[in-house]
Write a structure and sequence with these properties.
Number of helices: 7
Radius of gyration: 20 Å
Length: about 170
């Protein structure tokens, strides 16, 4: 079932009916409104026909059953703008302007000590320049820019601080 961005309860119930997941969209709408579960995440989901309404809602509010993923390779030497362009072109990035703004913010400083330690942060055009680790990543379609950055920074931290093994040394 494909749920578009900012879908309302009518759109979601119609998509579920058309996908064969539910047979009575009005009952689903009523259940969602009574339980105050009328906000859903965009994406393509794999749902079963025998799921109860709460299970459907839980799946549509999370990302565990999303199937709309994109693999993007960030190549060594790419700068922040090139990375943003590639993410946008591949369909992974939902908001390029927000991504670029976040790459120049202090939002991630409390989560990563290496960002707090940047001596010339105010002199950089993009604070995160050089910290978006080149690698192959899997993102959701139109993923939140902060989620993309967290995924890349987590990989950077893991790769930079992982124990290096050398023959003859322990």
């Amino acid at each position: 079932v494909k749920i578009p961005k900012d879908a309302d309860i009518d759109t979601v119930s119609t998509a579920l009916k058309n996908g064969g997941v539910i047979s009575e969209p009005n009952y689903f709408k009523m259940y969602a409104m009574v339980t105050k579960n009328d906000k859903f995440s965009q994406g393509t989901y794999k749902l079963k026909k025998n799921m109860d309404y709460q299970a459907i809602i839980t799946n549509l509010q999370g990302t565990s059953n999303r199937t709309d993923t994109i693999e993007v390779t960030i190549i060594e030497g790419m700068n922040v703008i090139e990375i943003a362009d590639k993410l946008e072109k591949e369909g992974a990035l939902g908001n390029k302007a927000e991504f670029l703004q976040l790459c120049n913010s202090n939002k991630f400083d409390n989560d990563y000590d290496f960002l707090k330690a940047i001596p010339n942060a105010k002199d950089r055009y993009y604070k995160l320049e050089g910290y978006l680790y080149p690698d192959k990543y899997e993102f959701y379609v139109n993923e939140d820019p902060a989620s993309i950055i967290y995924k890349i920074l987590n990989n950077y931290e893991k790769r930079i601080y992982e124990k290096q093994a050398f023959d003859g040394y322990e």
